[in-house]
Each structure stands twice: as C-alpha cells, then as structure tokens.
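Sequence only, no structure available. Ideas?
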Amino acid sequence: MANFSISRETCPTIKNILLLDSEGKRVAVKYFSDEWATNSAKLAFEKSVFTKTQKTNARSEAEITMLDSNIIVYKFIQDLHFFVTGGDDENELILSSVLQGFVDAVSLLLRSNVEKMEALENLDLILLCLDEIVDGGMILETDGNVIAGKVATNSMDDGAPLAEQTISQALATAREHLTRSLLR
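Reply:
I predicted one. Tokens follow.
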C-alpha cells in the first residue's frame, strides 16, 4: 500500500495577504512567512508592492507581477487593493484562486459595498476571512461563498457561547445583557 502523506514542502503556501487602501496604507494584512521579520520590513515590502502596482489597471481581472523573487497576484476594487504573495516557485493559478476567494468573501460580507470605510467598519469580518482562507501559510479554502458563510455574523445566534462569537457579536451580546439587567 502506498504512503500518501502530504508534506509541507509539496503543498502550495502563501507568504502574505495584504489589503491596502488607495494610498498604500494598511487596512488588513496577515504575514505567514518569516521573510519580513520586523514591522518596518513589512511596511517597506507593502510600500514597494504598492509602488510597483499602483500604475496598473487591475480592476476587471487579477494581475500578476514579480518582486524580490516573490509572485504577487493582485486586484483593485474601488479604493481597496487586494494582494496575495507566494514564492517564485508557486503556481500563479493557485495564488489567483486564493485572491479571488478573498475578494469574493469580502464583497459578500460587505454586501458589494467594497470600499475603505466599509472595510474598516467591518474589520473583524475581514480578519476572520483571512483566518478562514490561510492558516500558517497553508491554504484552507478558496471558495468565497464558503468563506463568507463561515464568517457571516447573521448565522450566529445570541445564545452561542462567547468563544464562538466575533468581537462585535460579543460586544452586542454584552450590551444586550447589560440593557436587560438595567431595565429590570
């Protein structure tokens, strides 16, 4: 019988996922590689990615570029710039499917109002999206509908344990309990 164990070296990995605004400033970022050890190195990388891609028109379809032996797949929607970075040996189609899953999930969660202010107001949902897509660099999910379904706040009932609620849900539950106790 054959041994079908999967090693980390054979699985496609993501180095980072970036969501920047139209000025190149962070909205939500998640790094899975030690390649950028310090915060200043991460900010410098984000600036160089933004500078290299800002003149392109990646609004209708995702674009691909190389930077410092990294493949970067990116797409712009309104004033948000979505980026997925992989090593130079990664498959661009896999990186593109991760990017499309992230864009689709964010679009569903923000009710197609994909812009910076809406993203900042729902930052907890976007960060949960990042957690659902990639864990430690390993790709978990690329279907935007599945990602959004796992993250969606309206699927969580008020009786759920606090550990299974998002921050905004937990605050809303606490506010509701406080209001009930004060009205008694």
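Helices lie at 39-53, 92-109, 116-121, 123-133, 144-151, 167-183.
Hope that gets you unstuck.
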